[in-house]
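Structure ticket #2291
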Amino acid sequence: MKRRKVIQSLTTLPLIGSLPVSGERVEHVSRKKKRDVIAELGIRSFINAAGTLTYMSGCIMHDEVVETIENTSRHFCMIDEVQDKVGEKIAKLVHSEAAMVTCGAFSAMTLGLAGVLTGLDVRKVEQLPHLEGTGMKSEVICQKSHNERYNHAFLNTGCTVVEVETVEDVERAISEKTALLHFLNITANAGQIKHEEWLALGKKHNIPTSIDIAADVPPVSNLWKFNDLGFDLVFISGGKAMRGPQSAGILMGRKDIVAAARLNAPPRGFTVARGHKVNKEEILGMYVALEKFISGDHDREWKDWEAQITRIENAVKGLPGITTKVTIPELGNITPTLTISWDDTIVKLTGRGLRDKLRFGSPSIEAGFSGLPLYYYQAGSDSIDPATEDSLKGANLIRITAWMLQPGEDKVVARRLREELMAAGLRPTADG
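Resolution: structure written out below.
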């Protein structure tokens, strides 16, 4: 062969060092570009300046949580063993006797009450939600101001909810049918009976007490505060501030009740809560999210939120007709919350109109509902009915939070708000 052909033939051969050893896995130098299914399907993604709302997909999971889900998805595990191990670890972290991962706080409520009703009696588990003639209790007592729509979780077991307002009402309402005394932390200030007195009533009558703190971290101390106070069951969402899987939550409390709740839960297929499946990836991901949340630098995080809210506020508060106010909810969703309102004789725009301009602009931004009562916003309600939405069309305010913003997004929100408010303020009035 001629010299040139010999050299060309050598260049087509792999180098000796690049040849795989027997049994060695070959890694490709160039990685395949990841598929963007959101863009492929034309689904709108957005900057979340509204908060941890379920219908907005709650939160963005921590990288460690996503890695946990991805890594554990490659293995088979027994669901009960995963719940055993994770529940033991979570219980220690939150100062409870026992714990389990559920498919959200709502699921924790249904399962917790089911555990109270059935104990470890499999026959009773099979009978739910048909309580008549079973000997099981059938009523949950709560204060009128605490009986909000998420209490439907209790109705799934076949129980009814009895409303009370005073201690005397509770004493009259308690009977052989009473299964649970339930408390809603977000409306604690609206009821006449406070936490400690509610617990005392439960102890006096030997009736389990429960508390819904679905969206009530931060502060991180709330994770164990209500267990330390003595509530028998505590319900919390996992896909909010803890940034765990959106479809996960935690039931924590008395060991005997949690064990009975587990009997009512998947993987068993004969229960009222069979549809409450949580897979191994979510259980383990929730555990990692909880660990990370508890060990986080919450002071630094709070300062970051304050700085972001200040940057957004400073972008608009000097504009004609604009009023800004930063508040911190007392009981739930405890993060700096910016309310922006305006004089509609100067800024020709409703709150609904501004929210739509942010939503349908580029980039898309979701802000808090305009004109909603502060409690409704604090409670993190998932949606509002059309009639309520219609009644708010003329309200001239929006609310902004920073805790779900990604790095740098506060600057984008500040710029877009200023642009839209200035445009609306410069618009001529109807009479010219």
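Closing remark: The chain has 17 helices and twelve strands.
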